[in-house]
């Protein structure tokens, strides 16, 4: 019998991506301080947050670690070395989209697997090229409400997918859970056979 996989996330996209590869999960969000440390590189930042989310979830389970498997992830959009988190409001979303318009940026997603008292983290990095956006496109997108809970103020799996000219890396990583890396991590430790 496979152990229960706990997902330390509220993201419906992550649940859908796990289901896509035949895995059910129990949602157990982890609330942690997501402030980036001074001089912390974006890659180190997402790895740290994924690991801390997994640890917080394990602590919430408050039982023998051997009995639980926790999967956590964190995604960030990076433009010229600067992390673009979730927008504070509509104006913040517009500013981020203007900054991303017509150029390339990186999306880092770290996935942490906690089990048997240990945690392993993998990092997926994707380069995303976005078309040049008009103010009307940005305004209509912000009005749709889609940017509100998304790093960098856009979701590749939604309306903004029409703006993405090219990616180099993992499409599902940009969505928030790189399926290949996640499945490989679960397989490596015997928690999945896909």
In words, what does this structure look like?
This protein has a single domain (about 5-190), classed as Maf protein, CATH 3.90.950. The radius of gyration is 17 Å and the shape is globular. With about 190 residues, the chain is an alpha/beta fold. Helix content is about 35%, strand content about 25%. It has helices at about 10-20, 40-60, 90-100, 135-145, 170-175, 180-190, and strands spanning about 5, 25, 70-80, 80-85, 105-115, 120-130, 165-170. The mean pLDDT is about 95. α3 (about 90-100) packs across α4. It is built from six helices and seven strands, in the order βαβαββαββαβαα.
Basic shape: globular
CATH class: Alpha Beta
Total number of domains: 1
Q: Find the structural class using helix and strand composition.
A: alpha/beta
* Arithmetic mean of pLDDT: 93
Distance between the termini: 15 Å
Helical amount among residues, as a percent range?
25-40%
Indicate the CATH topology: Maf protein
Rg from alpha-carbon coordinates: 17 Å
Enumerate how many helices there are, as a single number.
6
Share of residues in strands: 25-35%
- Low-confidence stretches are none
Q: Major sheet: size, sense and barrel closure? A: 7 strands, mixed
> Number of DSSP strands?
7
In the CATH hierarchy, the architecture is Alpha-Beta Complex
């Amino acid at each position: 019998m496979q152990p229960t996989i706990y997902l330390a996330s509220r993201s419906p996209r992550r649940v859908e991506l796990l289901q896509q590869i035949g895995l059910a999960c129990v949602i157990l969000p982890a609330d942690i301080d997501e402030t980036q440390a001074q001089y912390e590189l974006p890659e180190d930042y997402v790895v740290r947050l994924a690991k801390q989310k997994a640890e917080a979830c394990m602590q919430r389970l408050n039982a023998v670690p051997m009995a639980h498997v926790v999967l956590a992830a964190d995604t960030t959009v990076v433009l010229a070395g600067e992390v673009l988190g979730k927008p504070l409001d509509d104006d913040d979303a517009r500013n981020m989209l203007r900054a991303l318009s017509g150029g390339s940026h990186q999306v880092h997603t770290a996935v942490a697997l906690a089990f048997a008292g240990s945690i392993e983290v993998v990092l997926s990095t994707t380069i995303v090229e976005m078309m040049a956006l008009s103010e009307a496109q940005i305004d209509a997108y912000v009005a749709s409400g889609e940017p509100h809970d998304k790093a960098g103020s856009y979701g590749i799996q939604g309306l903004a997918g029409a703006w993405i000219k090219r990616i180099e890396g993992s499409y599902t990583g940009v969505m928030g859970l790189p399926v290949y890396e996640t499945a490989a991590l679960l397989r490596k430790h015997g928690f999945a056979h896909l």
